[in-house]
Every structure is written in C-alpha cells, then in structure tokens.
Amino acid sequence: MRKAYLDYAATTPCDPEVLEAMKPYFFEKFGNASSIYSLGQEAKKAIEDSREKLAAFLGARPDEIVFTSGGTESDNFAIKGITYALKQKGDHIVTSAIEHHAVSEPAKFLEKQGFKVTYVGVDSQGLVSPDDIKRAITDKTILISVMHANNEIGTIQPIAEIGRIAKEKGVCFHTDAVQTVGHIPVNVDELNVDLLSLSAHKFYGPKGAGALYIRKGTRIESFLHGGDQERDRRASTYNTPGIVGLGKAIELCSKTMPEEAKFQTALRDRLIKALVEKIPEVRLNGDPLKRLPNNINISIRYIEGESMLLSLDMAGIACSTGSACTSTSLEPSHVLLAIGLPHEIAHGSLRITFGRWTKEEDAEYLLESLPKIVSKLRAMSPLYDKNRL
Ligand SMILES: *Cc1c(COP(=O)(O)O)cnc(C)c1O
Fold it and tell me: What number does the ligand 1 atom closest to the CA of 149 have?
C-alpha cells in the first residue's frame, strides 16, 4: 500500500545522521558525564559540543542553555520556575488562549495554588495582539508566555514586538518555540525573549531530549532537585545520547533549513489552493502568510475529523485533526474555538504537516484520496443531506 506521513508537527523521524552520531554514546562512550575519569569526560565534552551548536543556532551563550527531557519539561520549567522565583514580586501571569497544553496546564496548576492568569484571546487568524498583551500587564505581572508558532494552525506570533513590551515593562518573557526551532530562524535577541523552549523530536532529533534557553541574569527556581548537573538548575544524570542527537539535529537544520522552508512553503501554498478548489466548503485555518512553512490546517464542513483520519489511515496517510486531539475528550481543539470556529466546523478540521522527507508525490496522493473520502463521508452524513435540500 502507498504511504504518506503528513504529521511532522506531531513528531519527526530521527535523521539517520543523528542516529549515527548518537550510537557510540550508548555503549563505547557510555560514561556518566559527571565522572572525572576520561570515559566520563568524553561524554561531558560531547554534551558541551552540543550546547555550543544549539547556542550558536539561537544566538545565545552556551551557559544560557539547560538540557531537559523535551518541550513539555522546558515549558513547565519556565512557567513554574519563574513564578516560584518571583512570587514575592507578584502573582500574575499573562499568556495566550492558544498555547500548547504544556504551557496552559502548568498555568492552570498555578491558578489552583492562588496565582492569577490572564489568557489573552486571538483574532480569527490566530494572532495575538501585542496591544492586548500590553493591556493585560499589571504591576503584579511576573511572567508573559506566548508561543512562537502554533502547533495546530501554524500561525507565527509577533514575538519580537511582545518581547519589546515585556522589556519595557520589566516583565520576564517566555516563548514556546517547539514548532519553530529547526524550521525557521530563531534568534533569542531578535525575538527579545528571556526564556525559550525547544524539543529535539520536532526537528529530526530523538524523543525525550529538549532544552530551555534562560537569558543570563534571569532568576529561576531549579526544576529537578538532586545532583548539581546543569549548574544546579536541572538535576539528573545527563542523557548523553539524547543531547548529542539534539546537537547533531540542530547542526543539520542550520544547513538545510532555508531550502527546506522554501520547498515546503511552495508545496503548502499549492496544496492549499488545490484542496480549496477540489473540495467544496473548505476553509483554511490560521494566517495565510504569517504561517509555518510546513503547516496546513483546513476545516471541511459536514465532516467529523476522526472518521476522516480513519479513512485516511486506511489509505496509508497519516494526518491529524483538532477534533479530538486529546482523544479522550469530544471537545474540539481550544485553538480552533479561540479563532472563533463554531463547534461543528471545528470538529471537521484536518492538519497536514510536511517535513524533510515529504515529496511532491505525497501531496498529490493526499489530493487524490481526500476528495473521495470527503464525498463518501458526506454522503453518509444526515447533516449534509439536510443542507442540500
Ligand atoms: C510538541 C510540542 C510540545 C511538547 O514537546 P515534547 O517534547 O513532546 O514534550 C510543546 N509545545 C509545542 C508547541 C509542541 O508542538
């Protein structure tokens, strides 16, 4: 059967070069990087090498990077770490209504502990307004967290502008850049951020490896208490293979990113146009221009997202839907509701995301399969028939 993986925003395969770079650190070079003998120091050196590569990509200093277990940990570290460190100063956090759960759940957790959170809404394209952020800031605000690009609808936020406001007001600013690092340029100074989360498995590195950028001088509570790794900010034995993989992955991305982004943007725009032409009553979600190069998110009326995914899977195509993203809930995605979609339209949404091994043919195969699936599902839908009469 033909196959097309079109869900790179969920996770990416590990690049074979990344895997090769990691391999020695499972066996010959397995030493604990905190050990002083050469086997340990060899691992330590590899970790510092990765730290330098990542810092170079971000325009940061190596000592501003803390390695973590991934995007979720980095987000939790940033949100809780800053809030706990600054709780004498204030008790208010500003964030957006479309954050990943790795940001919104820690925010809700802190609300239960008595902190106050303002969830700033977005416009119909999914854009956060810097003015709205500015208006939400009070003299009790200790943290602002707004994602760089949204994982569902691909909208890229005006982070540099929000960062300027945060700086002006003297408020710490975090961004979840899990969807952008490795895909578009990300520079911590240009973005005016104090903290930035990233995750290796979203840019062809291994799962379970990530990092948090923490600007020098930022006061933050340590996340894991234990050993003195990462200068007392994050205890636990170093995940050497994971960190080496992350470093190799970012090095590869620095080289391939411009070309990949160009190819994906062109393919994205062609596919959007073709889908809208071929399938009646389809709309694009998210900003058409301020958008991740690899992201398409459409709503298809009178279709239920999950049945569409199952039919696509039977055709060998892997995509994602905002309909029951959390799979246990029937609520449509909070992101699609935040951009103002009614429930029934949000339920019929499809996210198609490209990556390093996506070919023209994959998009063509989707374009061949999806209209047939949609007609079939619509033919079975009582809603559709009613509206046809
Ligand atoms: C994937 C993702 C995360 C979570 O990262 P993990 O490494 O899987 O924990 C957080 N934020 C965004 C925007 C993501 O896309």
Answer: 13
Give the strand pairing for 65-68 and 295-300.
unpaired
Nearest-CA residue for atom 12 of ligand 1: 178
170 and 143 both lie in a single domain: yes
Per-position pLDDT tens, the chain of length 389: 899 999 999 999 999 999 999 999 999 999 999 999 999 999 999 999 999 999 999 999 999 999 999 999 999 999 999 999 999 999 999 999 999 999 999 999 999 999 999 999 999 999 999 999 999 999 999 999 999 999 999 999 999 999 999 999 999 999 999 999 999 999 999 999 999 999 999 999 999 999 999 999 999 999 999 999 999 999 999 999 999 999 999 999 999 999 999 999 999 999 999 999 999 999 999 999 999 999 999 999 999 999 999 999 999 999 999 765 445 567 899 999 999 999 989 999 999 999 999 999 999 999 999 999 999 999 988 778 656 54
Q: Which ligand 1 atom sits nearest the alpha carbon of residue 210?
A: 7
> What's the CA-to-centroid distance between 39 and ligand 1, angstroms?
33
> Which CB contacts under 8 angstroms, 24+ apart, belong to 26-29?
26/241, 29/240
245 in the same domain as 98: yes
Tell me: do 139 and 213 sit in the same domain. Answer: yes
The domain boundary, picked from 199, 222, 252, lies at 252
Residue list, ligand 1 pocket, CB within 6 Å: 70-72, 75, 100, 102, 147, 151, 176, 178-179, 199, 201-202, 210
CATH (domain of 377): 3.90.1150.10
User: Where a domain ends, among 230, 252, 274?
Assistant: 252
Mutate to test the pocket of ligand 1, among 14, 68, 155, 178 (most ligand atoms within 8 A of CB): 178
How many other CB atoms are there within 10 angstroms of residue 389's CB atom? Answer: 4
Query: What pTM value is reported for the model?
Result: 0.97
Same domain, 356 and 369: yes
Residues 6+ apart with CB under 8 A from 262: 293
Count CA within 13 A, CB hemisphere, residue 249: 29
Q: Catalytic site residue 325? A: yes
Q: 51: CA distance to ligand 1 center in Å? A: 20
The residues, any chain, with a CB within 8 Å of residue 112's CB and separated by 6 or more, are none
* 126, β-bridge pairs: none
Nearest CA to ligand 1 atom 8: 71
Domain encompassing residue 327 = 4-11+257-388
Tokens linked to 16: 């074979």
Report the CATH number that the domain containing residue 85 is assigned in CATH.
3.40.640.10
Specify whether 206 is located in the same domain as 296.
Answer: no
Closest atom, ligand 1, to C-alpha of 9 = 15
Number of domains in the chain: 2
